[in-house]
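Please produce the structure of this protein holding zinc ion.
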Amino acid sequence: MLRWRRPTLPDELLIDGRRVPVLATRRAGARTVRLKANAISGCIELSLPPRGGEDAAVTLLKSHHGWLAARVAGWPRPMPFAPGASITVDGQPVLIDWQAGHPRTPRLAAGRLQLGGPLESLPGRIERWLKARARADLAEQTLRLAAVVGRPVARVAIADPSSRWGSCAGWNRPEGARIGYSWRLILAPTWVRTSIVAHEVAHLVHPNHSPAFHALNRQLDPRASEARRWLARHGAALHWVGREG
Ligand SMILES: [Zn+2]
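Below is the modeled complex.
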């Protein structure tokens, strides 16, 4: 996949006072220009054929301005890591309570994330704290549930993927599978996070989405479909946590 910007295509669009980046990608199999308003990345995405298409892309941006504006208006709002701002942890609102006298390491108490230290490093410290909490929680839950189905897990890792909440690789390796999660699940309600864990652990037994997989998944987590609905509705907003604009 090659990515570049042609001079004829804008780098960004101003939509209702919001600067929205435009990302153009050329795709080998593409025959026409396609337009997408990506609520997760916060970008307007254009996919173009291997050659040409710039004029069609510009026309498409103009003719779909109203459509784009409606989509962008429905995007989540950025929730930056900043003093006085609010984020969610385990689905509960948490106020970022920065005071010079607080310790540098964040501490969660009574709906407040207390921390001091330099303001420049505050976003990074909050993100590291959330990731550490996510890793510990997800690893603990995964190993506990993997023991229930009697399958080994070699590694539980966290990352920041845009298109999936969890992944399971090497389900049949004797040394155990590698399970990965989005750290952003720590922002979601606990039962939603547990549901993703149950989904990945069910893949330790069934590396597919067969009826047998769903039966085991439901057995491990009766709220599986409810969690899927929650993520379909609120998942995009989790990707706007820690974002400035
Ligand atoms: Zn799956």
